[in-house]
Specification:
219 residues; 12 strands; alpha/beta; Arc Repressor Mutant, subunit A; Rossmann fold
């Protein structure tokens, strides 16, 4: 399930886009105030951003600059400022697409799908049964995107980067964003969730093997 961040201060338009994208299987997080959206991005990851330009607090172009400082997250600008000068400025700042309002919501879906396909073709690697796009925090198996939390993604990535090696719970804690004082059972809980999401069986593991008294090994 792809995660979309919508920055749109017109609440009627915001609700329309959220409802429409949700109906197509996207998980949408929406903000009317860009500074709140930027704070959200400091803690959470998304697959794509839909960005209005006429916003309170900050101009949309300044928001675009701030987003690009945080990482190469795909951006579709959605704005009533549809003249060629604004479009050129948007693309120069790193926007992946520019959709002038008004538009049909279905067109936004098509633009999102096209941008995400381009991103996936240009990034990511295949490791065993998994396709991993680390910058965009995407993990797929058999073309199905696994809905990991931030910590689950970090643990999975750490295990797969150390595949074939036994890693302790302490190593996992210190190599991820888990609090340094996390208990072993916290790691075990996350591993259990990861196993469930990738279809692994702890009693007959295909991917993650428990190593008694130490930790885990990615096979």
């Amino acid at each position: 399930m792809s995660r979309v961040l919508l920055i749109e201060d017109e609440l009627e338009m915001q609700n329309l886009i959220v409802d429409y994208l949700s109906n197509y299987g996207y998980k949408v997080v929406a903000f009317a105030k860009p500074k709140e959206a930027l704070l959200f991005l400091e803690k959470e990851s998304v697959d794509i951003i839909i960005l209005d330009l006429m916003l309170p607090q900050m101009d949309g172009f300044d928001v675009c600059k701030e987003i690009k400082k945080r990482g190469d997250i795909p951006i579709i600008i959605s704005s009533a400022r549809g003249d060629i000068g604004n479009k050129i400025m948007g693309f120069e700042l790193g926007a992946d697409d520019y959709l002038a309002k008004p538009y049909e919501p279905r067109e936004l879906i098509l633009r999102i799908e096209a941008v995400l396909k381009r991103v996936l073709r240009s990034s990511g690697t295949k490791i065993g049964d998994f396709f991993i796009d680390e910058p965009n925090r995407v993990v797929k198996i058999d073309d199905y995107e696994i809905d990991f939390t931030k910590v689950e993604f970090e643990i999975f990535l750490y295990l797969i980067k150390n595949r074939g090696k036994v890693v302790s719970r302490e190593q996992i804690i210190h190599s991820t964003s888990l609090p340094p004082d996390s208990k072993n059972r916290t790691v075990d809980m996350h591993i259990s969730n990861i196993r469930y999401k990738i279809g692994d069986d702890s009693k007959n593991p295909k991917y993650i093997k428990s190593v008694w008294g130490i930790g885990y090994k990615f096979l």
